[in-house]
Amino acid sequence: MTRLNLSFDTVLKSLVRWIVAANAVVLVIAIALSIIYTRIEKERIAGQVGLNMRSAIIANDYRDAMLQASYSLSGNFDGIRLEKPDGQVRFALPPGPQRSRMLGLNNAEKTVSIHFDEAHPESGTTDLIVFTYDQFEKVPPTIAIWLLIVAASLPIFLFGYRHLRRIHELELSERRSSAVARMTQMLAHDVRKPFSILRMGLGMLGKATDPAAVKKILSGLVPEIDKAVSSVDGLIADVMEVGSNSTQLIQEPASPESLIEATLGEMFRVYPKSNISIEYDLRHTHMVNVHVQKVGRVFSNIVGNAIQAMGYKGGLWFKTRERDGLVEFCLGNAGSVIPADSLPKLFDAFFTSGKKGGTGLGLAIAQKVVTAHGGRIWAESSKTLEHPDGKVEFFFTLPTAQGARTKTTASLPNHSSDITRAIAAMAAAAETGEGSVDKGELTLEADIIQACDKLGRALRVLVIDDEAVYRGGLAAYLSRTTELEAAILLAQADGSEAAFIAVGAEGFDLIITDVDMGNDSLDGFALVRKFRAGGHAGMICVHSNRIVAADHKRAIEAGADAFLPKPMARAQLLRLVLQAVQSASVPFVEPAIESIVPRQGAVAADTLPKPEILVVDDNPFILDAWEDVLKADAIVHVFTGLEDLSDRLEADPSFADRLVAAITDMHLDGSAGDGLDVGRFLKKSRPGLPVLLSSDATFSDDELLGVVDRVIAKEPISLKGLGLGLV
Fold first, then answer.
1. Which residue from 326, 591, 637, 665 could staple onto 617, CB 3.0 to 4.6 Å apart?
2. Is the pLDDT confidence value at 7 over 60?
3. What CATH architecture is 419-585?
4. Does CATH place domain 252-409 in 3.90.650.10?
């Protein structure tokens, strides 16, 4: 039935288009024939009238001349006037009795004006007789034919229009229903995820035999639960945002560079394996007056879509220009194309163009945010000689901040690797804590309290950040227990001016400063230099959400003791405080750092041969849980996405042959493929390999056929529980 309906719809669309086109062609032909017909008719009548009237005019018998003209026109006229050259009417006849009618339409007005030269009537030549015909038009038969075609095709056209409109409404309804179902599945998946992780963590905690193991499990469990809960919050926020009737804006000046920098940092944290070049053509001169958080989501939605559409490799570009109080942004990418018929639908809620895991809300929200700022947003896509694989560009306008010229400390990367290297460097610095030790939070708290007791006073800490919520978050970290709160005297400043006042009033053992703090404040690097120039000897840490490799070096050169990524985890903050209190009391001796063994893709095998099992999941904690459950009975190879697995098979073609089974998650963030793609890839490499999909989602048999052998629960299962017959 579906194929028949689609075929009928296609034929109907073609028929309607043909009818409209045919009517237009016939109308053009009718008009052309009418013009040609009229000209020929005029020439014929002029010759006939002139021949019949010549002798009467020469004889000055004007009445006979008019009668001859009436006879020549067969009475089919509205009037005949005999005029002098100056336009004076010498003689006139009333309308003839033969006015033709066709389909209720009268002929156009036909008045024959005969001009003559009264001074030379005897010349006997028609050269002195000029015939003019005012609006002398006849309705040709082609007009009637056209009207008949229109009348005959009108019922078909109306039927086709109504049917196509009904089909369009059904398609919209089906698309919304499909999107709602897809979003419900995603929401169900995201809601289940923290509980699944918690269940795994509790299982691992139940097997832990010493406090160190418990701390290690908790250190991995809590961040993963927080991340999963944040994902649910984000999805719910999207639904609420697109469903609300208004968008409340808290606008402030922001540099386009800082918006771009923050977006790139966020995106390449999420997609660290990207290989993307970045180009800029920024021609604005003013900052934009925007709600930074909401506009940041506009950038993130567009750039995130671009990265995924390119398959995590290719080129991005950012362009700006300024006119009429607006900054026009262009965010483009190469290597993908949007079909022309999809462009008008891109900003419709729930519309997706095949994006895996997409809700169809991101661009709808982007349009709502841009419109609320008084701007507009649109997209263009094409294939060109420069971009044979296609290019996509999103344009949107945002209001300028009047009087606020561009001012920024942003440093824009030219390649995604610039960001991932900076993230790795900051992660390494955070891991070493610039001299800290990997301890549990409870141990760190105890050490801080003990060190402050030895110091004989509370540790004085100053947090400088223009975001009050973030300052409050760090304060909450340091006041979770009464003892810790008593051991630390915390002050806050929202910029350089307040910071100078605070430092002038009393000295601080530890200063933590952000980098970018608005137009009215020095940046963090300048602030550090001022403090050091003023003789401040206490510990200073610069931290920022900027992902710029050179920032660490700039911070140290300015006089800072450490540079850490923002947001700062509580354990990092406690390590920093511990180092500060130790530096304030006695010379600090860097404690030994526990060696960190990077994941190599496999757990070492026991001396006895063990079966080899592949696990693919984007969550490191879940990978650890699978290893913990299976390592006693199997060699476990773990990968975070399809790309890692592909690289391994390319380097070791026999790898797939050694596997006895593969287990994969369905949703693989940061990977170009999902669990089904992993299954297809493995089945292509080794058709008989059992592939198990670890997911709480529901799938149809058609989706799984030939790709996945079985769906198992979203939690690690022992080798025996997998039912592979290996134990």
1. 665
2. no
3. 3-Layer(aba) Sandwich (3.40)
4. no
